[in-house]
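stage 2 :: seqdesign
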């Protein structure tokens, strides 16, 4: 039986035993991506041969050509800790940093996990502990976990309205904090950029550091992400809903950290249990497609960026996956314009695609990068 056929059988069996609210990892993740598996990149990624790594080079090149036609800037493929293929287009190169838009959210979530490990915060804390103006208001019951799960109930009218208003604000954090509470937390899932920007206030109060500085010290520097930085708004606040500047190879390091369960060489920048909580199961019981600011491929009701999902919507939604052809334990950091960091524990791969932002032109979706695993990878 071909490798990927076996993986689909495993996923199908897992689908039969999991529920919409409890995403138990398929068996592939129990054996792949363990601590100590390597190698880890040093100053540069160690390179490998795609055919030796189990890929069909012609199919891999075909998918790369399709992504090139989608106006991609770069594509990087990691397997078993080695960079087995990379492409750069539109005048870019390995050191060309760009905005990764909402893929930043997965980094912001990771900072919360690091802060929790350092006992600076607990994600079960009421966010009002760190945002005093919410105390005694309808937002008093919102937890840090709600902000990480996108079910905070904070004000949201539409995806475009939400994104445009917070992006245009000079002081994005003050704007985000000042928004009203629409519904109690845990009742509606909505892709709420403004709510996620309040994590800047939470992390700053909890750690005493600007989140951009905290990210550099605790995450970017330890991983050798030398071309990456979190940015700030005009008021000096760290952008937590977008704003990370990075490269394909740097974002591959971030994905590889999660593939290795938070380990990096002989260090542990991110706790194993955080990786599991953030990416191994849904973070709430409305949509199975979302963890702690990571997109998941779990079977169940799949929410969309463009529309909220209520509990009633969830109860009547079809059970599907973000990418039905891909394994259930695959997950992604995703951003505007088809910014994709794809992690697949079962095949021990990380795939990164970056490109220009666009609200109008068709852009690659995870369905296309998933094909690098489901079609181009032909043996273990």
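stage 2 :: out
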């Amino acid at each position: 039986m071909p490798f990927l056929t076996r993986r689909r059988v495993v996923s199908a069996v897992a689908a039969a035993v999991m529920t919409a609210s409890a995403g138990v990892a398929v068996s592939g993740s129990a054996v792949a991506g363990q601590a100590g598996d390597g190698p880890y990149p040093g100053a540069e990624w160690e390179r490998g041969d795609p055919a030796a790594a189990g890929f069909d080079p012609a199919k891999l090149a075909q998918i790369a050509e399709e992504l090139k036609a989608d106006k991609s800037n770069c594509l990087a493929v990691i397997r078993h800790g080695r960079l087995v293929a990379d492409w750069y287009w539109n005048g870019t190169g390995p050191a060309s940093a760009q905005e990764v838009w909402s893929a930043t959210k997965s980094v912001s979530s990771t900072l919360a996990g690091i802060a929790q490990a350092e006992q600076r915060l607990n994600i079960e804390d009421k966010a009002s502990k760190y945002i005093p103006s919410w105390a005694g208001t309808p937002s008093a019951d919102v937890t840090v976990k709600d902000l990480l799960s996108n079910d905070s109930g904070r004000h949201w009218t539409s995806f475009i309205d939400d994104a445009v208003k917070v992006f245009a604000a000079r002081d994005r954090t003050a704007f985000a904090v000042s928004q009203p509470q629409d519904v109690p937390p845990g009742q509606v899932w909505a892709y709420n950029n403004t709510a996620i920007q309040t994590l800047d206030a939470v992390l700053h109060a909890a750690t005493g550091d600007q989140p951009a500085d905290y990210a550099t010290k605790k995450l970017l520097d330890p991983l050798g992400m030398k071309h990456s930085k979190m940015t700030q708004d005009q008021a000096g606040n760290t952008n937590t809903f977008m704003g990370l500047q990075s490269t394909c190879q740097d974002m591959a390091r971030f994905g590889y950290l999660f593939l290795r369960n938070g380990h990096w060489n002989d260090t542990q920048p991110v706790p194993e249990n955080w990786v599991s909580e953030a990416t191994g199961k849904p973070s709430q019981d409305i949509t199975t497609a979302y963890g702690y600011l990571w997109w998941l491929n779990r079977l169940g009701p799949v929410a969309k960026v463009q529309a909220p999902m209520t509990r009633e919507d969830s109860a009547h939604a079809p059970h599907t996956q973000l990418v039905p052809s891909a394994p259930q334990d695959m997950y992604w950091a995703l951003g505007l314009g088809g910014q994709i960091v794809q992690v697949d524990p079962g095949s021990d791969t990380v795939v990164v695609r970056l490109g220009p932002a666009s609200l109008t032109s068709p852009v690659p979706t995870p369905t296309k990068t998933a094909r690098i695993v489901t079609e181009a990878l032909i043996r273990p």
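stage 3 :: structure notes
- The chain has two domains: 3-95+257-376, 97-246.
- Residues 1-36 have pLDDT under 50 and may be disordered.
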